[in-house]
Design goal:
282 residues; 14 helices; alpha+beta; 4-stranded mixed β-sheet; two-stranded antiparallel ribbon; 65% helix; 2 domains
């Protein structure tokens, strides 16, 4: 067992370097060191370009330095003893479990680390889906956007709203129309120079509503070219039913002129997509 990992790192002459999380998010921590006369490093150290006798840790995890350094040192020692990378990692994890199974802070760290890893993996899946949507929009509707990231979409959906409603990322990803809507909404806000985070909706509500109108137009245009009357009818009915509430809410965050302009825009949009049983009035 390693009595004090921070002191042992100093004793071994290793340098601990905290790096931007985006740089090391696929690994969280990594090392390239000499131990017992052997160079010990995973392949990730070569990818990251870690200098000799350095241990890199994501700055996101600085709070949990003790646990991370213990894990890395234990893994290094197992590697030096002849275990392969995977074996050394598992045995190091087992030591940590043995030591800190009932340690609240370590358990907090493991949960946060797991969440971060899942978000990291999900970002690749979601960003590929976003690229697919942007390609569809450009190809079918001549709508262009410089692109948005998983983090922007994720933070935007999780953010505070005037109504307190939170939209599920799963609901958005399972419905192409909703995903088109959210992607366009964020793109429109970025075009206006609005930063995208959890405070965007609450701090830029009139801008968000204007972007919402544009997003609804693009969403319904896509439904139109796919002859999806059922979706168009459903959406305009929903928007029409909550319109008075939306305008009243908008009036709390905007001046009268802006409210009247946006009210006119949404009424024109609803009229544009009115449908009858015999076809579109578009």
């Amino acid at each position: 067992m390693i009595a004090n990992p921070i002191e042992e790192v100093k004793k071994l002459g290793y340098r601990v370097r905290y790096v931007n999380h985006e740089v090391i998010k696929d690994y969280n921590a990594c090392y390239n060191v000499i131990y017992d006369g052997k160079v010990i490093k995973p392949r990730a150290a070569e990818i990251l370009g870690i200098p000799i006798n350095e241990i890199w840790i994501s700055e996101k995890w600085k709070k949990y330095e003790k646990y991370i350094l213990y894990h890395e040192l234990a893994e290094i020692k197992y590697r030096a003893a002849g275990y392969n990378q995977e074996e050394a990692h598992i045995l190091s994890e087992l030591e940590c479990i043995t030591l800190w199974r009932n340690d609240p802070m370590w358990r907090e760290f493991i949960v946060e680390l797991h969440i971060s890893d899942i978000e990291n993996m999900a970002s690749e899946v979601v960003e590929e889906k976003i690229r697919e949507i942007l390609n569809i929009l450009q190809r079918d509707l001549d709508y262009r956007c410089s692109g948005i990231s998983f983090r922007e979409l994720y933070e935007y959906l999780l953010g505070e709203t005037p109504t307190g409603d939170v939209i599920s990322l799963g609901d958005i990803l399972r419905n192409r129309y909703y995903l088109i809507h959210e992607v366009v909404e964020i793109c429109e806000l970025k075009k206006q120079g609005v930063s995208i985070d959890r405070r965007t909706v609450i701090e830029h509500y009139s801008d968000v509503y204007k972007a919402h109108i544009k997003a609804l137009d693009i969403e319904l245009s896509y439904a139109y070219i796919n002859n999806d009357i059922e979706w168009i009818n459903s959406r305009i009915d929903t928007v029409a039913k909550q319109l008075d509430y939306d305008i009243e809410l908008l009036s709390r965050y905007s001046d009268t002129r802006t409210v009247n302009e946006l009210k006119k825009e949404i009424h024109n949009l609803l009229k544009k997509y009115q449908v009858t049983k015999t076809g579109y009035r578009h």
